[in-house]
Specification:
Layout: H1 2-9, E1 15-20, H2 26-33, E2 39-43, E3 48-53, H3 54-63, E4 66-71, H4 74-83, H5 85-102, E5 107-111, H6 115-127, H7 139-152, E6 157-165, E7 168-175, E8 189-193, E9 197-206, E10 208-209, E11 216-217, E12 222-225, E13 227-230, E14 233-237, E15 241-257, E16 259-277, E17 280-285, E18 293-302, E19 309-324, H8 327-343, E20 351-362, E21 366-378, E22 380-384
Parallel strand pairs: 5-7
Antiparallel strand pairs: 1-3, 1-4, 2-3, 6-7, 8-12, 8-22, 9-11, 9-15, 10-12, 13-14, 15-21, 16-17, 16-19, 18-19, 20-21
Length: 389
């Protein structure tokens, strides 16, 4: 009896709670006489309730009217799954479909009014496996694709951003503004000033130079003419070629706080799906605990007949640096950023001639400066000669 008891206790997965609809004591004596281990016996006027192994239950059920009222161990889980299998299957299919749909591209919007740019981006995105009904890309993949598209279209695109909003991609683009207008070899052109400035250097391979060094010019003035004159008459026209470098002026305003946080690229993005049941959150997929994150929540399922809401939470883990600057350090940082703003606009053969701080304002939490720049810059651009009647 003791060995049987020990073996049954080791096999809790085979235990069941039963009710036996028997009034006589013969049921109890049968348990004793047949060495059937049982526990938690409850006897009433009309029935017995006890816990035994499922194998012993099968034997008793042939002689007495019995019924299982509870399973234990793994059989309890199996019984729950069997009773609610259709609900669990539906839930799993729904979650699978939800996962697939939420990671599928349903729309791509390009914010540009230039049809040529739109065609270029549509082709580039498709070549990089970004199109409707394809799988959404993660952040690192999008960054690589964005860099590749910019490298492949350096002469047409200045800046590009691909943002994921739900199941949609929004593409923001800035076309590259060329300093020289593309013209056919048959076009006759002047070289004109693209902005106001003071000429420091001017040279011409073809055309007639109209301005001298140290001349002040206005935007739109002709600097090198494509018309060749003789005795004040135009004898023929050419496509002007040359370079005009001038002193150009800019004013830059920069504000720097003494204490600030600068966020850099983030390590990874995690998509977390969770159920909200009466204000309590239960994570289904993508559990993450950590700091230095930015979260964006999206409601996926909210039906009045369901006792829960399903949410998708996009978790972005950022790297960041905290800065605590003195007044002098903030001033130096403002000058540095001001210089960077100018340098971004310049080519390799252009540079800052000089700068002067026009205004410096200090406050309890920040510093503001206004800087005047003189810049050595190529201001000559081609302009087609328009014939006058």
């Amino acid at each position: 009896m003791e060995k049987l008891k020990e073996s049954v206790l080791k096999m809790n997965n085979n235990l069941v709670r039963i009710i036996a609809y028997e009034q006589s004591n013969s049921f109890y004596y049968r348990l004793i006489n047949n060495n059937i281990y049982f526990k938690d016996l409850i006897k009433t006027k009309d029935y017995y309730i006890l816990t035994i192994s499922i194998d012993e239950f099968n034997g008793l059920n042939k002689r007495y009217k019995c019924k299982i009222i509870r399973y234990y161990g793994i059989n309890f889980i199996i019984d729950i799954l069997n009773k609610h299998r259709y609900m669990f299957i539906s839930l799993m299919i729904s979650l699978l479909l939800l996962y697939l749909l939420s990671n599928t591209i349903f729309n791509i919007s390009i914010n540009s009014s230039d049809n040529n740019i739109i065609k270029i981006l549509n082709k580039s995105l498709e070549d990089n496996d970004i199109s409707i009904y394809k799988r959404k890309k993660n952040y690192n993949e999008l960054e690589k694709i964005k860099g590749k598209i910019l490298d492949d279209n350096r002469d047409k695109l200045e800046w590009l951003e691909i943002k994921s909003k739900g199941c949609n991609y929004v593409v923001d683009v800035t076309p590259r503004i060329k300093k020289e207008i593309e013209l056919s070899s048959e076009d006759f052109t002047n070289i004109i000033a693209s902005k106001d400035g003071k000429i420091l250097f001017i040279t011409s391979n073809s055309g007639t130079i109209l301005k001298d060094r140290n001349d002040y010019v206005k935007k739109g003035e002709v600097l090198i003419s494509g018309k060749i004159y003789k005795d004040d008459k135009v004898i023929y026209k050419v496509k002007s070629e040359g370079k005009v470098y001038a002193e150009v002026w800019y004013t830059v305003k920069v504000t720097i706080p003494y204490d600030y946080v600068e966020y850099t690229e983030y390590d990874k993005t995690i998509n977390r799906y969770y159920l909200d049941i009466f204000g309590n959150e239960f994570t289904i997929l993508g559990k993450y605990n950590g700091t230095n994150v930015m979260k964006e929540k999206q409601l996926i399922i909210d039906k009045p007949y369901l006792p829960f809401k399903l949410y998708k939470e996009t978790i972005k883990k950022y790297k960041y640096n905290k800065y605590y600057l003195t007044e002098q350090e903030a001033y130096n940082e403002a000058l540095k950023r001001s210089d960077n703003n100018i340098q971004k606009m310049l080519n390799d053969d252009e540079y800052i001639i000089s700068k002067k701080v026009l205004k410096k304002e200090t406050f309890s939490s920040k510093i503001k400066i206004e800087v005047f720049y003189k810049v050595y810059e190529n201001i000559g651009i081609a302009s087609k000669i328009i014939e006058e009647e």
